[in-house]
Amino acid sequence: MIRITREADYGILLMTYLAQAESQALSAAALAQQRHLPLPMVSKILKTLARAGLLTSQRGALGGYSLARPPAAISAADIIGALEGPIAITECSEEGHDGCCSRQAYCEVSGHWPRINQAIFNALQGISLLEMSRPDPLQPVQFHPLRQTVTANAADHPI
Amino acid sequence: MIRITREADYGILLMTYLAQAESQALSAAALAQQRHLPLPMVSKILKTLARAGLLTSQRGALGGYSLARPPAAISAADIIGALEGPIAITECSEEGHDGCCSRQAYCEVSGHWPRINQAIFNALQGISLLEMSRPDPLQPVQFHPLRQTVTANAADHPI
DNA sequence: TCTATATAGCACTAATCTAGTACCGATTTC
DNA sequence: GAAATCGGTACTAGATTAGTGCTATATAGA
Questions:
Q1: Higher confidence at residue A15 or residue A140?
Q2: What is the rounded distance in angstroms from the CA atom of residue A43 to the CA atom of residue A83?
Q3: Where are the domains of chain A?
Q4: Is domain A6-85+126-133 classified as CATH 1.10.1040.50?
Q5: What is the percentage of chain A residues whose pLDDT exceeds 70?
Q6: pLDDT 10s digits, B64-117
Q7: Cβ(A109)–Cβ(B86) below 8 Å
Q8: Which domain of life is it from (chains A, B) (predicted)?
Q9: Strand D: which nucleotides have any atom within 7 A of a protein Cβ?
Q10: Cβ-nearest to B126 among A13, A90, A158
Q11: Using the beta-carbon criterion (under 8 Å), do A154 and B146 form an inter-chain contact?
Q12: Which residues are registered as beta bridge partners of A75?
């Protein structure tokens, strides 16, 4: 299955908590406790998010992390991208692979991967941290709604 | 990064070749040779795709594999789903995990994962094997078509 | 019927990646 | 100066992926 790592999963959990904290700085320890996640992991993830510019950090006693931008201006794609690198679904569509894939000569698909990546990226880009940090939507989710009649989100314009 | 396995990657390569073969049955060995992929892997992948109902197989001499449906009726989601299982981006959003995630009590995000999965699923569902088996689109990909116009493919954009 | 060809299914191994931990240095508050 | 907290790097165990091998079964044709 298409999977994100647990790091990105946790990252979203932490970001949603920070979104609710309304720009109040929270320490790694506090976040780990609130979300019931292992502190070392939380610490590592927050460092990465800070380096990516999604969080601002304050060192020292009473320090902590807070969102660098308003929750509406942060997307799922931002968070996942920060923790897992660029959203590239196959090796050959990653950076630095343009033209050096050993199979490229026999691969007509290569030109299509960017579109697929694009579609997934748009889907993730269309979901903001603001939305995610709201309580459960409580809408029953149709899992295989077959191309039509999907509630509006970025994935409605797949390509 | 969000990744599919190499198995699914190869699977799409093989399916596009079969789509071009126009219902002519091709053996695993022939496909492996055409796509320059290791035969045992090709063989394993084709078996899986056949079991999933995307390919029909013919045993014995002169046997081989051919598409079970027209290329327009097969999507990237079908192929990836067949080879990697259901498209579930986190463990807790997989089937059978409804309600047994140990962190669910502290996780307001859980209700949003189905939407994210849905968005990705729709994106992959919207890309047919017919489209993928056409030669390279050669169109520069618009990067954020909804927001701004950046001309680069997804992998050029580390987010 | 025999043989060559080809898929079906399962089991196995090596390499890679992920999850999680540990340590030490730098910075800030009190 | 002490305590709290972030910053960075390195490390380990376990899980996953990639790829291989073997045996059984089905089919076409001589």
A1: A15
A2: 13
A3: 6-85+126-133
A4: no
A5: 70
A6: 999 999 999 999 999 999 998 876 666 666 655 554 566 777 766 666 777 778
A7: no
A8: Bacteria
A9: 2-10, 17-21, 25-29
A10: A158
A11: yes
A12: A128
Closest nucleotide to A43 by C1' from CA: D6
Please give the nucleotide, over all strands, whose C1' is closest to the CA of residue A61: D4
- Mean pLDDT over residues A81-90, rounded? 79
CB contact under 8 A, B108 and A133: yes
Q: Which residue has the tokens 């959990």?
A: A13
Answer with the residue of higher pLDDT: A113 or B158: A113
In angstroms, the CA A123 to CA A112 distance is 17
- Contact of A110 with chain B, judged by CB distance below 8 Å, is answered with yes
A136 and A16 Cβ atoms separated by less than 8 Å: no
- Whether domain B1-85+128-159 has CATH 1.10.10.10: yes
Tokens (6 digits) for B50: 């056949």
State the nucleotide closest to A63 in CA–C1' terms.
D5
* Angle, helix A28-35 to helix A6-20, in steps of 10 degrees: 100
Mean per-residue pLDDT for B118-135?
A: 86
Which residues on B lie below 8 Å from A86 (Cβ)? Answer: 1, 154-155, 157-159
pLDDT one-digit tens code per residue, B24-60: 899 999 999 999 999 999 999 999 999 999 999 999 9
Q: Which residues of A touch B30 (CB under 8 A)?
A: none
CA distance A36 to chain B (A): 7
Q: Which of A38, A31, A40 is nearest to A13 (CA)?
A: A31
